[in-house]
Amino acid sequence: MADQDLASRDSKLPRPIVNAMLICDEASLDAKSGKVTLKGIFEVIRAVGFPVRHEALVVYIKMTDAAGTYPFVFKVISLEDGRLVGTGQAKVRAKDRLAPVELIFTIGGLVFPNAGLYEFQVHADGLYLCGKTLSVLHSKPR
Predict the structure, then answer these.
(1) Nearest to 3 by CA among 124, 119, 92, 88
(2) Among 121, 22, 123, which residue's Cα sits nearest to residue 78?
(3) Residue extents of the structural domains in the chain
(4) Separation between Cα atoms, residue 92 and residue 70, nearest integer Å
(5) Fewer CB in 10 Å around end: N or C, the chain?
(6) What is the pLDDT along the chain (142 residues), one digit of tens a residue?
(7) What's the whole-model pTM score?
(8) What whole-number distance in Å separates Cα of residue 25 and Cα of residue 39?
(9) Which residues does residue 57 pair with via DSSP β-bridges, in sequence order?
């Protein structure tokens, strides 16, 4: 589904509210307790040269006020030139609007073409919900 603004969409699904969005090295779900553990939360990547490949990262998203089956689209966009540098999608079913929904997107081999600011975006049912920025900085060699 193409992204649309709220006024033009036909869906009757409630718009989810994002409570948290974090970029980290790892996320794990404890099957017994249902708790999610995040390791290595970060907002900056430093690189000596470009393009730079980040071998693995995780985007954790927690939301509420969702009920029904949603097509989620995840995008990584350069805020310097609007270029799409990564994307993914998933269908998620939420049963209870009051219960939290947690999404864990694992991204491997993401390539950042230049230093700059990038936005990790989450869209549900064609609507932009939230974004989290990541700074990719040029570092001098050691």
Answers:
(1) 124
(2) 121
(3) 13-137
(4) 5
(5) C
(6) 344 443 345 578 999 999 999 999 999 999 999 999 999 999 999 999 999 999 999 999 999 999 999 999 999 999 999 999 999 999 999 999 999 999 999 999 999 999 999 999 999 999 999 999 999 999 988 7
(7) 0.87
(8) 6
(9) 107
